[in-house]
C-alpha cells in the first residue's frame, strides 16, 4: 500500500502550449499538485531553456524549476502533421493552456471553437497581454509593458523619479497564478455538471487586480495615488531603515498600540505618549517626524540589535533577504521551502511551490527535462504511432 499522499489534481490531463513564462508557470502550478502536464514545444524547445544563467549543457537553471513534473514533447505546429498530433492530444485532455497572441491557435485550427463539438469538456485557458477581446487584444503584451498599463508601475518607485520595476517578471507570474485559479474554478464547475469553458487571462488585468483602493479612491475623490518610495500612502509608520552595519530593516508599526511600543523601544517615549500620534490619521500628518526619529535610531545600531529589540517589544519588523539569506535561514528550511533535484549527477535546490496542503500536498517528481524527452512515450504510447510513422515525422522535421 502506497504511503505517498494523494494529490488533488491527480487524473487531470493538461496540454501546455505556452512559451516563456505565464503559460508555463500555470502548467508548473498544476503539475506540482498532481496534474499530468504534457508540454508541447517547438523543435528547438521553449526559449526560456536558454535564458539567464546556464548549466554545462547550455540549459537554464530556471528551466529546471519551471519545467518540473512536465512531459516534454516537440511538435512543429507550422506543419500540418504537427497540428494533427497536437489536436489528438488536446482532444483527450481536461485542460489546455496557451499564451500565444489572440488568433494564433485559430489560424492553426486549434482554437476553442474547433473543439466545442468534439470535446465539450475541455477547459481552455488563454493567457495574453490584453485579453481575447477589446480594441487592444491584438497587441503584443509582455509583462514589462502590461505592468505599466495595469497600474503597478505608476505606484512603484520614488516620487519624481522614473517608475521602477522589481527584478522579476511579476506580471507573468501573476497571470499564471490567476490562470491556475481560473482553471480550478472551471474544473469545479465541470464537476458539478457543467461543461468546459474558456478562461480568459490578461497580464494587465492580473496586475490591475492588485490595486486595492486605487480606483474607488480616484472615483470618489479624484485622488491619483502615485509612488511613495519605501512607504505606503496613508499608513504610518511602515518603512525601510538603514542600520549601522549597512543592512536595511523593515518596520511596520502602524497599529495604535504597536506604535506606542515601537517608539518606547526606540527611545522616544515622548512620541509614544503624544496624543497627536495616537491614531493613524495623526501619524500620517506627522509622518516626516516619525520617520526621522526611526531613521536616527536605526542608524545608531546594527540590524540584528534593532530586530532583537523590536522582537522583544512585539513590533513587526524584519530584514530584507537575498537568496543567500533565505537558503541559510532555519525557518525557510523548517517550512520546507527548498526541494533538491539532481541535474547531470549534481544536486540543485529549487523552490517549493505554494500553497501548502496538509492532506494532499504538492511535490516535485522530476526537474525540467530535456527537449523532446517524452516524445516516444507520448507519441507512441498515447497516440499509437508506429516506429515507421515516428521515424518519418523525425525525418520531416515535425519532431525536430
Summarize the structure.
The chain has 400 residues and is of the alpha/beta class. The chain is built from 17 helices and eleven strands. The protein has two domains: 13-210 and 336-395, Crotonobetainyl-coa:carnitine coa-transferase, domain 1 (Rossmann fold, 3-Layer(aba) Sandwich); 238-242 and 248-319, formyl-coa transferase, domain 3, CATH 3.30.1540.
- State the distance separating the first and last CA atoms: 41 Å
- The order of strands across the largest sheet is 3-2-1-4-5-6
CATH fold-level label of the largest domain:
Rossmann fold
How much of the polypeptide forms β-strand, as a percent range?
A: 5-15%
H/E series: EHEHEHEHEHHEHHEEHHHHHEHHEEHH
- Indicate the mean pLDDT: 96
Helicity level, as a percent range? 25-40%
- Shape summary: elongated
Per DSSP, the total helix count is 17
Indicate the CATH architecture of the largest domain.
3-Layer(aba) Sandwich
What is the alpha-carbon Rg in Å?
Answer: 25 Å
